[in-house]
Amino acid sequence: MDNKQKTIVFKVSDNIKKQLIDYYYDMRCDKTPPYAVFQVKQYDCVITLYESGKVMFQGIGADIEANMWKDLENHTNNRNIDDEIKAKEEKEDDKTYYYYDAIGSDEVGTGDYFGPIIVTATLVDKNTRKLLEDLKIMDSKKMTDDKIRRCAPIIMKKIPYVTFTLSNLKYNELSNKGFNMNKIKAILHNKVLYELSNKNIPYHKIIVDQFTTPRSYFSYLKQENISEKVTKITFLTKGESKHLSVAAASVISRYLFLTEMDKLSEKYGITLLKGASDKVDEVAKKIVSKYGKNELNKIAKINFKNTEKILS
Ligand code: MG
Question: Which distant-in-sequence residues (6+ apart) come within 8 Å of 221 by Cβ?
């Protein structure tokens, strides 16, 4: 029944408001709800126009009826109502999750030719939220490496977290077995989430920065017969801006990644670069000429296109 009771609400422009009033004039009910201009009850849809300009379509026929006016807004005023509704929902999402005590996870290294993949889960509750706000913790991609190096150690002392580093050797082994990146991510996220959620620290929700559909996520875990799994997950796109646990997880992951890259750079006497650009290829060529091509298996993601370019 739920989707039959579909409700669509959006605000119409003034010129469209006039047309709505004209169009439905003969069909209007005798009674109007408070603050409404009119209400129309068709057999499959109830239409209510409010003084504010908000129009509400309810019922099985809501889509069809609303689409007519969305199209008119589009043609007349160049407005994309669907985009506006979506943006509004996302904004509301931001607020919805922010104040929950939640576990969140995020990963780094999946787009970098060199270095491991690191996945971290953190738990942020009302007691630790303030610390992260004071440090201005956000998505690690939006923070400088310097800031990450300064903040991450502080966070790691104060908030509960679990992290896992997948070495390049192991990554290459899995990718040779046919594991794609999303499958690897799903397995690693599940691992850190499972461990952290079983530490007996209270939380309301588990949030994953969405990288694949929930259906694929769980099917990857099923394919590997993983029994220790977390099943109640809220998948959010741009999760790092919706809950600080995801942001903190991305910062810790990035910090550990940077540390790992420092170690490797020192070991090889060559500064390893992040990403997968041509410059990265140049660095890799130096490593191959100095240490041989088998060395790449230990420090790089061999299935990236870079490998072919480097070895040719
Ligand atoms: Mg992410």
Answer: 186, 187, 190, 229
Confidence band for 1, pLDDT divided at 50, 70 and 90? very low
The alpha carbon of 239 and the centre of ligand 1 are apart by a number of angstroms equal to 7
What per-residue confidence (pLDDT) applies to 87? 86
Q: How far is the CA of 80 from the centre of ligand 1 (A)?
A: 28
**DSSP H or E run through 265:** helix 244-268
Q: How far apart are CA 238 and CA 148, in angstroms?
A: 19
CA atoms within 13 A on the CB side of 124: 28
Tokens of 129: 């939220």
User: How far is Cα 233 from Cα 245, in angstroms, rounded to an integer?
Assistant: 14
Between the CA of 237 and the centroid of ligand 1 the distance, in Å, is 8
Structure-token pair, residue 37: 């201009």
Q: How far apart are CA 93 and CA 157, in angstroms?
A: 29
